[in-house]
From TrEMBL:
This is 2-oxoglutarate-dependent dioxygenase htyE. Transmembrane segments: none annotated. Keywords: Dioxygenase, Iron, Metal-binding, Oxidoreductase. The keyword Plastid does not apply.
């Protein structure tokens, strides 16, 4: 595990490791067995210590990520009138798709103010050409597909394409994690995440925009995103160069998750921690204003895109080791309840 020293130079603090995913990159049909076990060990170590890690060489084309960021920025910098047309819950009835304005969500339990961010959610979003795993509902049967965003041509396609790549990567990361846990049933986790991209699974791609801060006074009692754990199984985060993300390690210390070009930041959520009886850690994290921010940084917005991989709607999360450390829980019920809490503060 990588370490950094504190300001006194005397205390070693685990930081977020960078792990090479070449052995099971998306451009490979099968894992490179000569390097696969090392990959398994490194990811297992990261998830049992700090709970976060960067993956490099995952096989998602740079242009796919770049395009998703570009269309997102065009949407978020549109007028409030345009964005309001696509508000989540109103744009498409009974759908999670759409825009979530500022001051709608507060993730920090002790925060005095709502998070300073906007977001746009898509779920489900797999392209018509996607090859589904067995028992997955065909794309043309999905009831809540969303139409094009007229004011941002190409937005739907760009976000759907990134979703599709993330779905494939998600299944491979789950496979690696299962190997690290040495489970008797190698499909114990994967068989409960077979319907990603359909109405039968709440996996979501969320593109986020943190507006510029024009004065120091705006930062009083304000964070860009309050401290929290994610709700589901596995999260991927793509972030721009602005910085501000911090991760709490097992010692309760906040560690900066500095943006690293060409990587995907990975962490797990509460349901995965319950599944593994606390073997894997759902680490708290938050987005702050960069320490000692210059006026240039304060006057700059921040962008990120998160893929929240979740179990299927019919999944009951029980401790895989049979310990009963946590009672069984319905995956969608748990996620819904946590999401409701974040909007009711």
């Amino acid at each position: 595990m990588a370490e950094v020293k504190d300001h006194s130079g005397s205390v070693a603090v685990p930081c977020v490791p960078v792990i090479d995913f070449t052995a099971y990159s998306l451009d490979k049909a099968e894992p490179d067995q000569s390097k696969f076990n090392l990959l398994v060990d490194k990811i297992h170590e990261a998830l049992t210590t700090i709970g976060f890690f960067y993956l490099e060489n995952v096989g998602i084309p740079d242009e796919v990520i770049k395009s998703a960021f570009e269309v997102s920025k065009r949407f978020f910098t549109s007028s409030n009138k345009i964005k309001a047309k696509y508000k989540s819950g109103e744009w498409i009835r009974d759908s999670f798709h759409g825009y979530v304005p500022l001051d709608m969500e507060g993730l920090g339990p002790d925060s005095k103010r709502k998070d300073l961010k906007e977001s746009f959610n898509i779920r489900p979003a797999i392209k018509e050409t996607e090859e589904f795993l067995p028992f997955v509902v065909p794309f043309d049967q999905i009831s809540n597909k969303f139409p094009e965003i007229a004011e941002v041509p190409g937005m739907k396609g760009a976000l759907c394409e990134l979703f599709s790549y993330c779905r494939k990567l998600h299944q491979r990361v789950l496979e690696v994690m299962t190997k690290g846990l040495q489970l008797k049933d190698p499909m114990a986790i994967l068989k409960n995440c077979q319907k990603i991209g359909t109405v039968n699974n709440p996996t979501t791609l969320r593109t986020l925009f943190y507006p510029a801060v024009e004065s120091e006074s705006e930062r009083i009692d304000q964070v860009r995103c309050g401290e929290h754990t994610d709700y589901g199984a596995v999260t991927f985060l793509f972030q721009d160069a602005s910085g501000g993300l911090e991760v709490q390690n097992v010692h309760g210390q906040w560690v900066t998750a500095t943006p690293i070009e060409g990587t995907v930041l990975v962490n797990i959520g509460d349901l995965m921690q319950r599944w593994t009886s606390d073997v894997y850690i759902a680490a708290k994290h938050r987005v702050t204003f960069p320490s000692g921010s210059s006026k240039t940084l304060l006057n700059s917005p921040r962008q990120s895109i998160a893929f929240f991989g979740n179990p299927d709607d019919d999944a009951i999360i029980e401790c895989l080791d049979g310990s009963g450390k946590y009672p069984p829980v319905s995956a969608p019920d748990y996620i819904y309840n946590r999401a409701t809490e974040s909007h009711s503060k």
